[in-house]
Design goal:
Layout lengths: L11 E6 L2 E6 L9 H15 L6 E6 L3 E3 L4 H6 L8 H20 L4 E5 L2 E3 L1 H8 L2 E5 L3 E3 L10 H8 L4 H10 L3 E2 H7 L4 E3 L4 H13 L3 H15 L3 H16 L2 H11 L10
Parallel strand pairs: 2-3, 3-5, 4-6, 5-7, 6-8, 7-10
Antiparallel strand pairs: 1-2, 8-9
């Protein structure tokens, strides 16, 4: 996947720099996760997962809002349908689930970069990404309870990534939390000054991109697989994964390079 000319009318901007693919949400002031944006983002992630030239995916945003979640105007417009919108509502939430699963199943690490508000399904997107870097201007919330629509699908990502009581607090109160609290909760990894955001993200992503692609793919897949297992099953599974990993060419090369005190040359095999 290579860099493509961008247009202000594109709801998802895509630009590849070296091995890092930058996907930028550009869907108006709210960066609403409309059908169009979710489809474009899911398709871009799936394509990047199969592209050997991409080693890391970064999801950022244009404007002051990372994403305000689902497009409520788009959803509300369908209430006039014969089924009162039921089919469209199901399509929307099924597509959102498919997007989140595509991030988890993508063999490449996905990093969210937040310099503004991430709310509802936007907060869900942050929680779903493998890593998240934010500025001190970033804020997060799951405010569905305030409008009579509990954030049930964002709940899935929250309860798998932050402490349960804090997830429940966010879901029940709908209140906004600051970046510092989000880091304490485990929702984001780092808080960096806005002026240094691009520099830190580039270095962070480049560090990950420099690793063996096979090793990173193996580790990410195992991480999510073992997280849902019992203790003994998780150890059995990861022992099998490490055994297979030891037989890979990059493990042989990496260990030999470490012993010989030289830089490893990855073949991604």
């Amino acid at each position: 996947m290579s860099a493509v000319p961008q247009s202000e009318n594109q709801i998802l901007l895509s630009l590849q720099k070296d091995a890092i693919l930058h996907l930028t949400l550009n869907n108006g002031a709210a960066n609403a996760l409309s059908i169009g944006l979710m489809t474009a983002l899911r398709d871009a992630i799936i394509a990047a997962g199969a592209d050997d030239s991409v080693r890391v995916i970064v999801i950022g945003h244009v404007g002051k809002v990372f994403s305000a979640g689902h497009d409520l105007k788009e959803l509300t417009a369908k209430r006039s349908d014969a089924d009162k919108g039921q089919a469209f509502f199901k399509q929307t939430f099924d597509l959102c689930a498919a997007l989140m699963v595509s991030i988890v199943e993508c063999p490449k690490p996905v990093i969210a970069v937040i310099n503004g508000l991430a709310t509802a399904a936007g907060c869900q997107l942050v929680a779903t990404c493998d890593l998240a870097i934010a500025t001190d201007k970033a804020t997060f919330c799951t405010p569905g309870v305030n409008i009579g629509l509990f954030c049930s699908t964002p709940m899935v990502a929250l309860t798998r990534n932050i402490h349960r009581k804090q997830a429940m607090e966010m879901l029940l109160t709908g209140e906004t939390i600051e970046a510092g609290d989000a880091k304490d909760y485990g929702l984001i990894n780092r808080i960096v000054p806005e002026d240094y955001l691009d520099q830190v993200v580039t270095k962070y992503a480049a560090t990950i991109a420099s690793k063996s692609q096979l090793t990173v793919k193996t580790g990410k897949k195992a991480f999510y697989a073992q997280a849902d297992m019992g203790l003994r099953e998780a150890y059995d599974h990861t022992a099998r994964v490490m055994t297979e990993n030891m037989l890979a060419g990059d493990a042989c090369e990496g260990i030999e390079a470490f012993i010989e005190k030289r830089e490893a040359k990855w073949s991604d095999s």
